[in-house]
C-alpha cells in the first residue's frame, strides 16, 4: 500500500487541497488544475458535495488521481473508497482509523505533528505521512529536525503553505510533496474563474 501511495505522491509536487461546495464545480475545477499540470487532487470531506465531487472526477478524468481529505474515521474511509478515491488523507490518526485502513485496498496518508506521532505511525508501517498543521507545528525547521533521526519517513506538509514558502518545503530531502489551497481559492471557484486557476496551477506545478 505504501508503494501505491508513493507512486502518487512522488509525481505530485503540489497537491491542491479542495473544498468543493457544489458538485457541478467538480469537473471544471479538476480540469483546470490538470490543465495546469496538477493531477493529484485532494477533495476534503468538509461539505455535503465532497463525495459526489470525487465520484465525478474519478469517473470522467482518468488522468487525475483524486483522493479524499479530512478522513477522520472508518466510516469516512469506507465512503471514500465507495466514491472512487485513489488515496485518502487524514489530519491525524486514531487506532480505529488505522485498523480500518489496514483492511482497505486504498492507501491512507495519516497525519503527524511531532516525532512521537511520526514514530507511532512508522511502527504501523507508514513511511509516508502528512505533516499537519505544517507552519503551526514548526514548519521547515521542525521537518529538518525530524529528518535527522527519522530519515526513512517522507512527508506531505499541509497547513499554512502557499506560493511564498512551498519551495522551501520542497527543497527538504524528507518532503515528497506539499498540499495547499492557494491555486483554487473559494473565491475563484465561486466565480468559476477556471482560467486563473489554471494559471496558478501552472505556477505551482513549476515548483516541483
UniProtKB/TrEMBL annotation:
Keywords, sorted A to Z: Carbohydrate metabolism, Lyase
Pathway this chain belongs to: Carbohydrate acid metabolism; 2-dehydro-3-deoxy-D-gluconate degradation; D-glyceraldehyde 3-phosphate and pyruvate from 2-dehydro-3-deoxy-D-gluconate: step 2/2
A Gene Ontology molecular function term of the record: 2-dehydro-3-deoxy-phosphogluconate aldolase activity
Enzyme Commission number: 4.1.2.14
Domain of life: Bacteria
CDD domains from the UniProt entry: KDPG_aldolase (cd00452)
InterPro entries per UniProt: Aldlse_KDPG_KHG, Aldolase_TIM, KDPG/KHG_AS_1
Catalysed reaction equations from the record: 2-dehydro-3-deoxy-6-phospho-D-gluconate = D-glyceraldehyde 3-phosphate + pyruvate
Enzyme class: lyase
Pfam families the record matches: Aldolase (PF01081)
UniProt record similarity statement: Belongs to the KHG/KDPG aldolase family.
Quaternary structure and partners: Homotrimer.
Name of the protein this chain belongs to: 2-dehydro-3-deoxy-phosphogluconate aldolase
Source organism: Microbulbifer marinus
